[in-house]
Every structure is written in structure tokens, then in C-alpha cells.
Amino acid sequence: MFNSRLLSLIRKEFIQIRRDPRTLALTILLPIVQLVLLGYAATNDVRNVPMAVFDQDKSAASRDLLDAYRTADYFKLTYDVQSEEELHRLIESNDVRVGLIIPPTYGRAITAGETAQVAFIIDGSDPTVANTALAAATFIGQSKATELTIERLAARGMGNVLGTAVEVRTQVWYNPDLVSSYYMIPALIGMILQFLASLLTATAIVREREYGTIEQIIVTPIQAWELVLGKVIPYVLIAFFNMLEILIAGVILFKIPINGSIGLLLALSALFIVTTLGMGIFISTMANTQQEAMLMVMFTLLPSVFLSGFLFPLEAMPVVLQWVSYAIPLRYYLIVVRGIILKGSGLAALGPEVFALSVFALIMLSAAAARFRKRLD
Amino acid sequence: MNEPIIVVENLLRCFTNGSSEITAVNHLNLTVQTGEIYGLVGPDGAGKTTLFRLLVGALRPDGGNGRIVGYDLAQDIEKVRHQIGYLPQRFSLYGDLTVGENLRFFAEAHGITAAAWRQRKTEMLAFVGLSEFEDRLARNLSGGMKQKLGLATALIHRPRLLLLDEPTGGVDPVTRQDFWQLIGRAVTREGVTVVVSTPYMDEASRCTRIGFMNGGRILAEGTVKELIRPLDGRILELAGTNPRQLRQIILADPDVEAVQTFGSKLHVRVKASTAEAVQQRLQQTIGTSGIALNRLRPIASTLEDVFIDLLENGNHEQTRH
Q1: A32 and A72 belong to one structural domain
Q2: Is the pLDDT of residue B320 over 60?
Q3: Which of A252, B64, B76, B308 supports an S-S bond with B71, CB 3.0-4.6 Å?
Q4: Between B59, B101, B104, which is nearest A376 by CB?
Q5: Interface residue A24 vs chain B (CB under 8 A)
Q6: Residue A160: band (very low, low, confident or very high) from pLDDT cuts 50, 70, 90
Q7: Is A174 among the domain residues?
Q8: What residues make up the domain containing A123?
């Protein structure tokens, strides 16, 4: 298979890659830039939500409640306000996202053993922040309430009979601190691989047509499959390098724990690379110019971003879109890469995904081979 | 070498452009003998490039068949490719590879071993005069040098047949002369047969045989002598003060077939064996019109006269052919 013609095609491709330092630099830097941007920005972690407090009570009890909020790092008490109007203004001007109003009767109600009420106001315009704030506020408030209830019962000598009827003990596996970058960065590997691999191969083959060099290639004994492999092999190597790059940067910058087998990860990534390169070749058989090829790659990229589970959980999508997602190779690779890195999944657990990816690789490559002709028409 | 190096019969190729269909090569027949320099001459859109692409298998014919370098065009195109060198009309080498790297790549693509291509590369660079430019990127070569590199690349694997599609298009006149000398030397030294297309008449006359192509067919072919013979003694050259009026007067003569402008002169084609009579009549009519006549004399016909005649009376020539 590795005959001298194929080797000289590969050598030629590497010379050309080297002679185009701008593209080369972009190819090497792009994954890191994307990783850093998306890794830091595309996080769903809500921390230090700015909060204003209107404490009309200023009693020991109200300070105690505020401390409960302060100690959890969900909120940051940035403003102490003197009126409800001031609170509204701060929310409107985006200086705070939440506000806590403690009525003047709070301390008295607590000491009297009555039900004390506080108001918690949340800016709901960003649902992600609002959801977390809502859950955190409720949780902190209820813990405080439970604590006070126990104190009251104990004060009446009933502390020992008290036990919670049902206690839900939650255990978060694989990513116990729910760090969203642990979830995003493995997926980024898939995203970047698909983008670069399909873009590089598609434009590399179309370039021969656009620059007319294909006409000279046609009259040589170079076979169509040699021409395709001569393009694919250099870019498989580059895409593989990109993957290692992201993986290493992910471990160093974001402390991603790799729980599974690195060998399995590399092997299955290679399978995914073949799938996306097949897609690139297929695109190259349809496009006449590099620009056309680039547009087509972008066109395939959008559904991959939105329907693969990269950004939004598949379970939350309408059923029809869930069906569509089955046709997106990235969907399977995301399960593979997140599974291996986060859960330490083995080949057995990933059987269906590996099967699906193999089928896609086969379909893409045979479709590309069927369309690819060593001719001008 | 009894078998002609190219025999194609009834070659047909159509293109659909939107809703209209264009027949680029229209039931074309062509035979080229080993050792010839066969010149394909014709206006833009005559189908020359399509014909070349069909001959090298870059396009598939819609009909017809052919044998090239002893192999069937449809069945054994890969075997054909080992034996032919092709220089496309558009520069088709890698601009981002050096002269030497281009030669090496195409030598290896033809399966030439490392030991063999080094010597051949040096030989070819010397042949086209690019030895000192071996390390220059191909895109930084001048137009003429690019074509010379193309020629060297097309010859690197010692083909038996060389196909050159307008190799001197956009090349300065001096380099054109150079290039034609190279073609001649390639024939004698390398023993190749050449098919070359050109829009230039002076270049066509350097060929051993010429085929005049238009509308996807070869309308006439032969040596320069054979082609100009039918027009011998039928061309008058004229020059006068008022060319437009002059033209009208000439066209009014019943024995005049066509008038063509060549720079400041007019070439008048007349019916066979009427040249003397026309010359006398024109002398008189122009004399009475008041136009100053600088020149009026019979001249030897040129290829250009022949091709203009063929363009106007293509079908007539085709049936006669």
C-alpha cells in the first residue's frame, strides 16, 4: 500500500504545509485558543453572584442569616442598601443579580418561635444564573430553617426524639464538584477535531482543482485512492497532533482528570478522525473552490455544535431533534470522549458508540471514494 | 512504427451549460504519425483544449473511440499515461514547490526511481535552460520560464507522445522562438511525437502537419504547402487612402470572394483564375473613384488566408476534404 507514489504525494503535501506558515500556525494555535476561550468562558458554574441586602431588622438573628448566605460561595454580599427602591435600581443596572430583604419583624419572630419571612429577589433574565441562585437561596434558607427548628425543639426538651423522617443523601459521581470545564473540554476535543480535520482535507483536495494542478496529476499514473490517501495521511497526523495538544493543555490548564485508558481514547479518536476526514473528502468532491468547501464545512459544523450534546443536553431537546442527532457522528464521539475521560469507561461500555462511529467512517469513506474520480468532469 | 501514434474516430464530447448543450468536440477524426509535429490551429472555443483533455483521459468522451501510443483510449488509459507527456494550457505545476521539487514529484509520480530521476532532472533542467533556477519557487518564475518548466516536467518520464496545449500563450516573442526550438530538439533528441495547439499562424508553419479546427471538427489538414495550394494565385494585396470606401468598391466586383484587413493593407481573395481580370478592373474603378492607390499586386497566399477562407466556408471545405 505504501508505494513510492504515495510517499512522494505525502512528502509533497508536507512541503506545501511547511511553505504556508500562516496556515500552519493557525492549525497549531487554533485548538489552544479555542480551548482557552471556550474552556474559561463556556462554563455553567455559577459562583459569587453579586447580592444586595436590605436588612431592616439588624438583629443578631438577621446577622446570623446573612452569615449563612455569606459563607456559601454562591453569593457575594456587595451592597448593603437602605430601601427597596435602591435594591431595584441595583438589579436594573446589573450591579447585583439577587437581593435579600429582611423585614424589621424578623428577629422578633424568631425569638417568639413564630414563622419569620424573608424575601429573596432574583433577576431571571439569565436563566442559568437564576436557576442556580434560586436553588442555592432556597437550600441555604431551608438549612437555616431546619437548624432553627431543631434548636426550638431542643429548647423544649424534645431534641432527642427528633430525627428527619427521610434523608436524601446525594452522591455525585465522576465529577463530584460539578466543574463544568471537566465536561466541556473533552467535548471540545471532538468539536475541534471535526472542524479542523474536515476543513483541512476538504480544502486541500479542492485546492488541487482550483489551482489546476489536478490536470497535471491526472496524466500521471497516480491512482485516485493514492491521491486521496496522500491528502488524508498528512492531515490525520496533524489532527492527531491537535488532539494531543488539546488533551495536554486541558490537563495542564484545567486540571482535567483522565480516568480511563489513554490508549483507548487515542484509538477511538483516530476512528473519529477517519470519519471526519471522510466527510472532508466527500465535501471536496462537491466543492469547486476552497471557499465553497469552507462554507460547506461550516454548514456541517452548526448542527454538530447544537445537536450533538456539545452545548445543550440531548435529553432536553424535542424528540424530532433527538432523532436528527443520531445522524451526527460527533454525538457518539462526545459520549466516547466524555465517558473515557470522566467516567473511565472501557470499550465494553462504549460498544454502541464505537459501532456507530465505525458505520459512519465506512459510509463517509465509501461515499467519498464513489464520488472521487481522477477526471475533470 | 507502422501504427499511427494517435488514431481517433468519431470522438464526441458535449457540455451542458445551463439549459443549452454545447458540442465541444463533434465526431472528430484525427490520425497522427510517429515523429510528426502536428499543429492544431483554431480560434478560441474551437474545441482544442477539450480534444487534448479527451486524449489524456481527463475527460470522458460521449462517443467515439481511439488508440493512443498503441493502447485503447477507453480500456487502457492508465497504460497510455505512462507514455504521454501533457502540458495543459493553464499552469498546472505547484507554485509553492521549487523547480527541482516539481520535477522530482512528477518523476516519482511516474514511478521513476530516485537513482534515475536525479540524473534525468539535471538533464532536463539543462535542456530547458533552468539549471540555475532549480531552487526557485515555481510561482516566482516568469511566464516563459513556467512554460519551460512545464515542458521539462512533461518530458521527465521520457514519453513517446507530447501534448502541448497552447504552450506559448502569453509568452513574449523571443521566448516563443526559444520554446519552438526546444520542441524541435525534443523531437530529434528525445524522439517524441508532438501534438501542439496554437493560435499563432507563424508557429503553425513550423509544424510538419497542421489541422485546422473549428466547431469541434478538423476542417482541413495537411502540410503548409498542401493547405495554401488551393488559394495560390487568388490573393491580391491592396493599400489605399480611404480603406472603408476601398473595401466597398472591391466587394462590388463579382469575382471577389472576401476582403480582409491585414494592418494597413487589404487582402482580397478572388475566384480561381480571375486574379488578372480582377486586378485590371479594380485598377480602373478605383482610379475613377479618386482614391489614391498605393499598392495593388498578386501575392502568395498565407496560412492566415487559408484559415479565414475555411472559417467562412467551413462546411464546403469539410465536404471537399
Answers
A1: no
A2: no
A3: B76
A4: B59
A5: no
A6: low
A7: no
A8: 49-161
**Inter-chain residue contact A215 with B58, CB threshold 8 Å:** yes
Instruction: Clarify whether residues A140 and A10 are in a common domain.
Output: no
> In chain B, what residues touch A210 (CB-CB under 8 Å)?
none
Q: What is the pLDDT of residue B321?
A: 36
Q: Which of A46-50, B100-104, B169-173 has the lowest mean pLDDT?
A: A46-50
- Residue of A220, A223, A373, A374 to mutate when probing chain B, most B C-beta within 10 A: A220
- Are the Cβ atoms of A218 and B93 closer than 8 angstroms? no
Same domain for A137 and A33: no
Residues in B closer than 8 angstroms to A217, CB to CB, are 109
Q: How far is CA A296 from CA A36, A140, A286, A287, B47, in A?
A: 26, 50, 9, 8, 33
pLDDT (average), residues B4-20: 89
Task: Indicate whether A328 belongs to any domain.
Answer: yes
Q: Are residues A232 and A353 in the same domain?
A: yes
> What pLDDT is attached to residue B53?
92
Calculate what percentage of chain B has a pLDDT beyond 70. 97
Cβ-nearest to A4 among B95, B111, B137: B111
- Percent of residues, chain A, with pLDDT higher than 90: 11
Minimal Cβ distance to A5: which of B86, B96, B108: B108
Structural domain includes residue A76 = yes
Domains of chain B from N-terminus onward:
6-222 (3.40.50.300), 233-299 (3.30.70.100)
Between A and B, how many residue pairs show a Cβ–Cβ distance under 8 A?
A: 81
Q: Is A83 part of any domain?
A: yes
**Tens digit of pLDDT for each residue in A175-223?**
766 677 788 888 888 888 888 888 888 888 888 888 889 889 988 888 8
A284/A306 same-domain check: yes
| B180–chain A nearest CA distance, Å | 21
User: Chain A closest CA to B172's CA: distance in Å?
Assistant: 23
SS3 for B112-161 is: CCHHHHHHHHHHHHHHHCCHHHCCCEHHHCCHHHHHHHHHHHHHCCCCCE
Q: Do A8 and B104 touch (CB under 8 A)?
A: yes
Query: pLDDT tens across A285-338, in order?
Result: 888 888 999 999 888 888 888 888 887 888 888 888 888 888 899 999 999 998
Residues A239 and A263 in one domain: yes
Q: Count structural domains, chain A.
A: 2
